[in-house]
Amino acid sequence: MIKEATSADIIELENKYGAHNYHPLPVVLSKGEGVYVWDVEGKKYFDFLSAYSAVNQGHCHPRIIGALEQQARTLTLTSRAFYNDMLGKYEKYACDIFGFDKLLPMNSGAEAVETAVKIARKWGYEKKGIPTNKAKIIVCGQNFHGRTVTIVSFSSDPDARGNFGPYTEGFVEVPYNDLKSLKEVIEQDHENIAAFLVEPIQGEAGVFVPDEGYLAQARDICKEHNVLFIADEIQTGIARTGKLLATCGNCSCEGFCEKKPEIKPDMLILGKAISGGVYPISAVLANDEIMEVITPGTHGSTFGGNPIAAAVAMEALAVVKDEKLAENANRLGEIFRNELNEFIKTSDIVTLVRGKGLLNAIVINDTEDSSTAWDICLKLRDNGLLAKPTHGNIIRFAPPLVMNEEELYQCIEIIKNTLVEF
Ligand SMILES: *Cc1c(COP(=O)(O)O)cnc(C)c1O
User: Has this prediction a pTM greater than 0.90?
Assistant: First the structure.
């Protein structure tokens, strides 16, 4: 009889044969359903990471899996050398929801960011009249936009950047949530600045929520100087922060959320939960005036816009609407922060809780290089809840948005009971 592999066996296997580009929490998962995942020993956990907010619709959502199965049996890939009967339908569906003229389909988030950078540069030369090779894109300090050479070229994280040079030129960094710096940089060099690329909430940096009005004012400064405002909503989008988008400025997302319009970016980058975590799908959306700089041969991807991706994305978006996930995230997020704020008053271990909707983080009262946050995550795991530290002493909490109130209260109990042990 063959012995079943234990968690320890599987971890050892990955350590031996896999490149060490991640440092996972030691837990080996083999099944997921809704807000739960199970490890190979059969222990059940609440998932409080949701694959970095890719699994907003919950694990293995039956409707999304159904769409995947059906399309997988029908037609999987044609490449864009030919038309397929799903892509146009999906493009229209997404454009109607997000309020843009056109969508450019890609696969991973980083690819979509690269795509937006390429479009912004080409728009800069062909529409704004920036002299050849002079285009600049403004980015924010502590940003996270992915892992390609160009993207890490404008990262401020030494691990992400170190020894990957020479770096791509043409990026200027300003501090996040700092309108004055943004205004100064744009005013100094507005003829050469094509775009401002920003995360509406900085997820990887530790869930930094900017001041009220920051995004809208940044958008206005950009508009004034003919600079494209690009929102990277790969992590914040698709109902995570209690609205369909964290920038929710499009009014065509009727039925998705109740929020009043705030701002609308010139380019919107989506990934992660646009597939419900079922398939690598990303997209850039923009209006014709911008998207028309892309012509045959200027950009592409073999898998981008394949029929499975189109079917999965449409169903994943429909689930967000039908199950009112934005509303749920908004309501549960309030409860979560209120409960943890009450707890903080009685505890020295957590200094603050912050976030929007169900994208939240707690800051642990210890130095950034301490192992306290990691140790807390190990204890949370033992107590049946999976979360991961980000940047040393910060723990992000981002459960699937299909969670109900009773489950959330159970999770809050687990978190409080774990924290009092420290
Ligand atoms: C995850 C993420 C990316 C990169 O997406 P990948 O699919 O991992 O390439 C880019 N931007 C933001 C804000 C993200 O959270």
Answer: yes
